[in-house]
Amino acid sequence: MYQRILVPLDDGAISDRALDEAIRLARLTGGQLCLFHVLDDLSMAVSADTAVIGYVGELIGRQRARARRMLNRGLARATAAGVAAQTVLREDFSSPVDARVIGQAEVWKADLIVIGTHGRRGLARLMLGSSAERILRLSPVPVLLVRGLASSAQAAEATAASTATHD
Asked: In this model, does residue 156 exceed pLDDT 70?
């Protein structure tokens, strides 16, 4: 059960939570992890600052180094927990991240994909889309979505709503 767990990573806290969950699962099942990141045109555009906008090669080099550091941190966390892991960094400016994740799951023969999701709703979801949702819909293997921690205001609001409906 879940011997080969693919974990797409980015530099966010939600991705860290997904990695923690994948490490827990791998420890329980004796599985291994593939920590995966894609350098794509959207991540390049979001991280570009005006000082290097004209120097695409320099920007790509910086992003590549940042991605490798992130993957190495994830690898160190998995190794410290006693979980076998490997890292894969892909550069793809021609296809969406979700297609690359699904492709990696097929090539690596993953049993499970564990990915963080922001859980956006409404206009934010419409504008930004959801790679996690597309992966969930199109994946040939099971997908575990790990949500971020709710802010204290959201948690208080949810608790108040829950209390109000149970009174």
From this structure: no
